[in-house]
Amino acid sequence: MAAAFELSRPAHQGRFAVTVYQEGWRLGGKGASGRGPSGRIEEHGLHVWLGFYDNAFRIMRDCYGELAAGGDSPFGDWREAFLPDLDIGLFSPAERQGWQKWAAHFPPRPGLPGDPTTKAEMLSLAGYIERAIGLLRALLLECDVTISGGAAAPAPLWAPGMLSDPARLLDAVQALLGRGVFSGAAVLAEALALLGVAIRMVPALFESAYLRLAERVSAGLRGWLEDHLLADDRHRHVWEIADLVLAILVGTFRFGLLTDQRGLDAIEDYECRDWLRLNGASERALQSPFVRGLYDLALAYEAGDPDRPSLAAGQALRGALRMFFGYRGALYWRLRAGMGDVVFAPLYVALRRRGVRFRFFHRLTNVGLAPGGAVAPDRPSHVATLSFDVQAQICGGRDYEPLVPVAGRPCWPSRPDFAQLEDGARLAAQGWDFESHWDRRRAGARTLSVTQDFDLVVLGVSIGAIPHVCQEILARDARWRRMTAAVKTVASQAFQVWLDEDLAKLGWQGPPYIVSAFLKPFDSWCDMAHVIPEEGWAARPRTCVYFCGVLRDEPDAPDDGDVLYPQRRAEEVRRAAVAFLADPARHLWPGAYDSAGGFRWEMLADATGEGPAGPARFGTQYWRANVNPSDRYVLNPPGSSKHRISPLDMSYDNLTIAGDWTDCGFNEGCVEAAIMSGRLAAHALSGLPALEDIIGYDHP
Amino acid sequence: MNEHERIRRAPPGRAAPLRNEWPGAPADHQPPPDAGLEEVIAHTVRLGYEVIGENIRQGRIAADRFSAGDYGVRDVPRDLLALSSRMLQLSRDISTTAFDICGAILRDPTLRAAVQRYTAPPNPAPASGPAGGPWPGQGAAGVPLTYAFKGTRRAVGMPGWLRGTGQPSLLSTAGLWSPDPALPPLRQVALSADAFAIIATVTIPDDQPAGTYSGVVSDALTHQPLGAMTVQVEA
């Protein structure tokens, strides 16, 4: 969609006639959502947009602006569609007994995501490290701990004048290094301040001195933190975060990252926890809820196995630095309604207005290459044909009209409008599932040929679908084979419940932020009460809550003939969700259980008013297993980034690729990566947008 | 679509992100891992001189262009601006003022001789820029784009960046167009260089319909797109 949006911009003056071929009845892929009974929003999972998603926000701001300029837009202003949030939380088993809740408030920052950004405004790695040191110092000073021994606070180790005198700064570093043991909060705070000042200097010259200083500060600080904070549950998270920041600090110098031309890619072959461990992080910090929460939010478990966490260190660090230090406005933004409603419906309407054509119910089956041998950048080929299954014909040969109004806005339905399809009643009765990889029923087939039907191709399927639609490419291109082997995906599961009582009544204390690091399989959840007014309930529930997590793969991958596979996995999710509500959820919502300890199923809102009692009532809620190849979440395991292929790659002179699985500069499964990739694909075909305008592409 | 000659993508200028533009000191200029304090400071000073030398070298190229070209009063060379920007950055990065170092260089004949080695331009400066070229185009980092409007209508321009070409450029545009093909385009767009940016002066007719209008700025010689302009004409 991002590529289509870029290529159809008026600035191109109609140079590209864009046609989008889409499987099934709705746009969005992993980001698609639909409207079910009572207009309720049914998502693939839990989506929030982080405050550094500048490219994603740029596109949406342009889209909303364009629609508003056209007059009478049902979508309103983008600021009504994205709601800022500043709090995140972790809720996890405590070390000794019970549960611990950790919440953090991130203050608003100047600007808004998607504001024009110059390269000079992007932080360098040195800039990030300086902010991390500042965070560490603030955490240290925030802990009101008496200095042991009652020693007088030392004189400040640095003075503003040092900023104009490197020799004095180095003198201070040397003096500090000559002190022996670093102990005492005040000395450590001063040492951190000195390190923070030092980092502003030309890094190449001082790396060995910095490294020694960082290692000494780190050792002293760890000792101090162990003495003062470890036994204190209230402050343990400070210790854990400080421990991780120290490891990052030491690792940055030890691996020469400040000056390495590869930036953080230099450590992309390390698993994140391994790299942190290598640089002194403690096991306690590595297993802390904070780290687990980051893995949970990134669904970073190979094959969905919680015992196989897998996250490449470079991208993990890049993501964390951008998330915590690179956001504008708010740390993250909730969507007013579903991803489909807030993102893909406006994009669809804007693209239609620009003249982009959509061909729904077209499932890609093969990308055909021109005859020849092995393909590589120095032996390029091109796409000669594109083959599709036409899943359904539209009545009268008309365009399919995919949107339905809910609460006054155009939305995507959760089911296709069979009335628009030829023989639609029969297809509905037979339960044709146009989004199931395993349902191959079709109404026809169609093959497009280069120069006759198309000139250029943006391949926007996800990596999980590549083995099914790019057999010819895989047979002839070793790089594509390596990429599909290295870039892993994981299935995910999600459920949503609509409740007639709000979270406070259920016993949850605190703001309704996104919460992670809870028990598997549904470790992440978020209160979504704000979307209720966008739904179409006759009697509104008090809230709804979304849960998600990874879904473990079965030992053997299903074959293409296993048509019942999606239903089987969905049933597995249903059972897991019922079991989850029946017991583990009591730690979150003690008020949701009756005096006998049973979950009060009658709280689940049911529009029909005829829902069954007991656990069977969960059948009125929503759940799903994201097992389709193209629905699987894209991972970034260590060593995989170098096998990704860029949309700018020239192995195929009329093809580019788009998606969060490509080498797009931010190699992580998220909407920002997908949109960066789409913008790169547009650049590959048209020269626009300029690479410098793809925010964060040129980033350490 | 009628059959025609197959269209091929043009190779991109580059195919990978620039992860770390700080080049670091050349390997042979790095202090040894166990360097003493004096040696580290010596390296600091050496690098400082190298950076200053590079700035002086670029300044000389800019001055040569300035004297050889036909820039108008408003067309202050961006080379000189880039130089002053680098000097300011230098003063922040090296943490001593550039002028102090310059002073030291000028006072010390040995250092002055050393710096002169860096100040010789590697290539002769061009005799003149292309006719009508408003933008020296030094460096490929990009230049900000701002807007000025003529006419009685209110309008807002979206500030952006134009890609640098590394070569002198003659900017051109075919006007600004609405996504609604029924609306007339804004055809009177003049591009000029100011001290800090490229200015797109857009004339908005009194009867221009409200809406968003976009257009491409390209290099008239190579037809390379350099960036996009977007303005919103208010009702």
Can you tell me about this structure?
The complex is a heterodimer of chains A (700) and B (235). By secondary structure, chain A is an alpha+beta fold. Chain A is 33% helix and 15% strand. Chain A has 20 helices and 22 strands. In chain A, helix 4 runs antiparallel to helix 6 (185-198), helix 5 (166-177) runs antiparallel to helix 6 and helix 5 (166-177) packs across helix 7. The longest helix of chain A has 27 residues, at 203-229. Chain A is globular and about 80 Å long. Chain A starts with a helix and ends in a 14-residue tail after the last helix. Chain B has 235 residues and is an alpha+beta fold. Helices cover 29% and strands 20% of the residues of chain B. The longest helix of chain B has 32 residues, at 37-68. Residues 22-140 of chain B have low confidence and may be disordered. At the A-B interface, helix 2, helix 5, helix 7, helix 13 and helix 20 of A face helix 1, strand 7 and strand 8 of B.
Percentage of residues in DSSP E strands of chain B: 15-25%
Distance between the amino and carboxyl termini of chain A = 27 Å
Largest sheet of chain B: 4 strands, mixed
How many strand elements of chain A? Answer: 22
Outline of chain A: globular
Note the total helix count of chain A: 20
Output mean pLDDT of chain A. Answer: 88
Amino-to-carboxy terminus distance of chain B = 39 Å
* Beta-strand residue percentage of chain A: 5-15%
Structural class of chain B: alpha+beta
Number of helices of chain B: 4
Secondary structural class of chain A: alpha+beta
Give the largest interface pair and sizes.
A-B, 79 and 71 residues
The side-by-side strand order for the widest beta sheet of chain B comes to: 3-1-6-5
Output mean pLDDT of chain B. Answer: 59
Give the low-pLDDT segments of chain B.
Answer: 22-140
Q: What's the gyration radius of chain B in Å?
A: 23 Å
Q: Taking Cα atoms only, what radius of gyration of chain A do you get, to the nearest Å?
A: 27 Å
Q: What's the count of strands of chain B?
A: 8
Bulk shape of chain B: globular
Q: Which percent range fits the helix content of chain B?
A: 25-40%
